[in-house]
């Protein structure tokens, strides 16, 4: 059982987009594993999605997800108490709100196995992220909890993107966490979210560039 938390105290950095697409990848991978083994799909979803944000954007997205796509279950949690993961689950992704701190932050760090921190191409975001990573380290349950950073909604071939790449390299040296590259700013995510879908639910040719950018992130997710 692995629990992935997507967190950043700043709003508008794409946490829900990352959380839902990560859940979609994990669900697709589980479905392919059953197909390869010629085994029946389990009665209950093996991949769960949770949201400690009162707005529950992830839950709205899940309500739009077509039944024919690899199933993702809903894991109801409280802001200050996550509780035990339902039986049968192999993976869970927890989306978090802006301003995550205090008891809600303690609650997600208590159950987290890996924490993914998205940030945008802003010097303010970068330095705030550095401080947030230090706080995550102080609250994680043990040193085995992995933390990684990824640039999100980055406009390619811009000065801001170049600066972000430079800052990521510097930040990596400072905080000693892996920097997983950048995901571009594209309407693909918006269009897919409107239908409860992810990059792994459509033809590869349609989202090939985005899948390529996700590879480093997926390698980190899949690593033991």
From TrEMBL:
CDD domains documented for this protein: ParAB_family
Highest taxon of the lineage: Bacteria
Gene3D superfamilies: P-loop containing nucleotide triphosphate hydrolases (3.40.50.300)
InterPro entries the record matches: CobQ/CobB/MinD/ParA_Nub-bd_dom, DNA_Partitioning_ATPase, P-loop_NTPase
CobQ/CobB/MinD/ParA nucleotide binding domain residues: 5-197
Protein name per the record: Putative partition-related protein
């Amino acid at each position: 059982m692995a629990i992935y938390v997507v967190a950043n105290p700043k709003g508008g950095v794409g946490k829900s987009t990352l959380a839902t697409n990560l859940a979609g990848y994990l669900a697709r991978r589980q479905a392919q594993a059953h197909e390869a083994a010629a085994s029946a799909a389990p009665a209950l979803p093996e991949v769960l999605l949770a949201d400690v944000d009162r707005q529950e954007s992830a839950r709205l997205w899940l309500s739009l997800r077509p039944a024919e796509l690899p199933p993702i279950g809903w894991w109801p949690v409280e802001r200050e108490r996550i509780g035990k993961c339902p039986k049968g689950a192999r993976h869970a992704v927890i989306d978090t709100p802006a301003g995550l701190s205090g008891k809600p932050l303690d609650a997600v760090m208590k159950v987290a196995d890996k924490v993914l921190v998205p940030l945008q191409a802003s010097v303010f975001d970068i330095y705030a992220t550095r401080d947030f990573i230090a706080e995550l380290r102080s609250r994680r349950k043990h040193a085995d909890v992995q933390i990684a950073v990824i640039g999100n909604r980055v406009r390619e071939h811009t000065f801001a993107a170049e600066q972000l790449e430079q800052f990521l390299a510097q930040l990596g040296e400072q905080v000693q966490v892996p920097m997983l590259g950048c995901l571009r700013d594209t309407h693909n995510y918006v269009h897919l979210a409107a239908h409860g879908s992810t990059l792994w639910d459509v033809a590869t040719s349609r989202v090939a560039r985005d899948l390529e950018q996700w590879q480093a992130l997926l390698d980190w997710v899949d690593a033991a």
